[in-house]
Write the structure tokens for this entry.
Amino acid sequence: MSKKQNLISFFFISVIGTLLHFTYEWSKDNFFVGLFSAVNESTWEHLKLVFSPMLLLTIIQIFFFKNSLPDNFLCARLKGTIAGMLSIVVIFYTIWGVFGKPFEIVNILLYYVGVIYGLWIENKNYKKDCTLTDVQAAVILLILCAAFFVFTYNAPAINIFRDPGALY
């Protein structure tokens, strides 16, 4: 992808993701909105702020720009999405482990770092042969989407699904 496309992707994901932090509350706790928005302050719910806008951008790009996308677009996007989400989890819990608590400004910056890292990984994967077919990548994206849907309202009793502020 070009620098211009990356910049547009970054701003799209960042703006939509930032708005998704608030849309559940704004919607007066609408069930459907909660499937894509953060419904609480857990790390899991904040991963939707990366996943949902990247999924939306993927759908838009496939429907409107399919002919200009790289052959391994879906695989690269999947890898970038997962990398962005994992980087947030790893850095968040590392900072928490070192300092004993999360810092709000760091958490906000961490989101943008995760988006940048995800797009960087995505771009690196455009230059490689992908190990997944489009169908396999799409199935994994659908499984991730289903996991977000299920665990939003049926969260397991493990810390990634709990509000970190309530844990310390």
Observations:
- The chain has a mean pLDDT of 92.
